Amino acid sequence: MDLQKTGNFLKELRKGKELTQEQLAETLHVSRRTVSRWETGSNMPDLDLLVEMADLYQVDLRELLDGERKKEKMNEELKETVLQVAEYSNAEKQRSTKIVRVYFVIGILALIANAVINMMELNETFMTGFLKGSTFALALIAMVFGILYTTGAMVKMQAFKMRLLGRRKEERP
Q1: I want to staple 148 with a disulfide (CB 3.0 to 4.6 A). Which of 13, 102, 115, 153 is the partner?
Q2: What is the pLDDT of residues 116-160, one digit of tens each?
Q3: What percent of the chain is helix, strand and coil (3-state, nearest 5)?
Q4: What pTM, to 2 d.p., does this model score?
Q5: Distance in angstroms (rounded) separating the CA atoms of residues 62 and 157
Q6: In 153-164, which positions are buried (b, 16+ CB within 10 angstroms) versus exposed (e)?
Q7: Residue ranges per domain, the chain?
């Protein structure tokens, strides 16, 4: 999949509908910067957004993925589209899995550090109390972030934040 080609195609489609990046961003509930990244080929929309864009632009999902209009429709092309969607989905899942692993590794390491501190039977000073508390808190926070990320809540919170920031910018004189 050629991200540059797909990005240029997305830009052509948007301009064909006479939409600005800002208008498209509002329609899809993303930031204008996100639309810009799609159009420059530095990032791709999530699969659900690709489907929404295909409906909006009245094009086949395969055309969005290939970055060009298709004149003939063939079963072989349909198979390729399904494979491209699967490849895209797998790449996103791998990226998400790596992020979640980092959160959980940090949490596990913090718990291990906390257990070691507790086993050492150090004198109760401010520093030992601080270390015990902070390693436990770090473990808890890392695991909560991991759970938020795996459930999709993190993405929803980010989208909500972007919508709020977008509204606040519009409210300013």
Answers
A1: 153
A2: 998 998 888 999 899 999 999 999 999 888 888 778 787 788 788
A3: 80, 0, 20
A4: 0.46
A5: 30
A6: ebeeeeeeebee
A7: 3-66, 86-171
